[in-house]
Amino acid sequence: MPQRQLPMIALLATGGTIAGISTSGGGYLPGVRPAEELLDAAPEIASLARLRVRKIAAIGSEHMTDAIWLRLAAAVNAELADRSISGIVILHGTDTMEETACFLDLAFLPGKPVVLTGAMLPPDRPGADGPANIRSAIRVAAGARAQRRGVLVVMNGLVHRARDVIKADTAGLNAFHSPFPASIGRLAGKGPVPSWVDFPRPFRNGLRLAGISSLPRVEIVYGHAGERRDLIDAAVRAGAAGLVHAGVGAGMIHRDARPALSEAIAAGVVVVRASRVWRGAVAESAADEDRDLASGLVPAGGLNPQKARVLLQLGLIGTKKPHRIRDFFRAYTAGIGHGGAG
Ligand code: SIN
Question: Could you tell me if 165 and 249 lie in one domain?
Answer without folding.
Answer: no
